[in-house]
Predict the 3D structure of the following.
Amino acid sequence: MWVHGTPNILVNCKTAHIELEEAPADWDAEQEFDADAYNKAQEAKDPYEVLLKPISQDKTIGLSDKIKQPSWAVRLCGDPTEYKHEDLEGP
């Protein structure tokens, strides 16, 4: 499994849902407002992405019409030089 260190961006363009304690302004005044049910319904419409999942399930990024690459990057730390032993064949 791959751990994603940063939260995903939701459809509401935020990384978390706003939990309401009172009814929103456009709520029908004749209906009773249940804050827990409303907040759960909002999260069900726009669920969080699981942070612990296989890296193969990440979405790909389209570089062109035909070329797609994973949405993750690998960083190399340290000396990037490749060394070859003089007495051995191959890399």
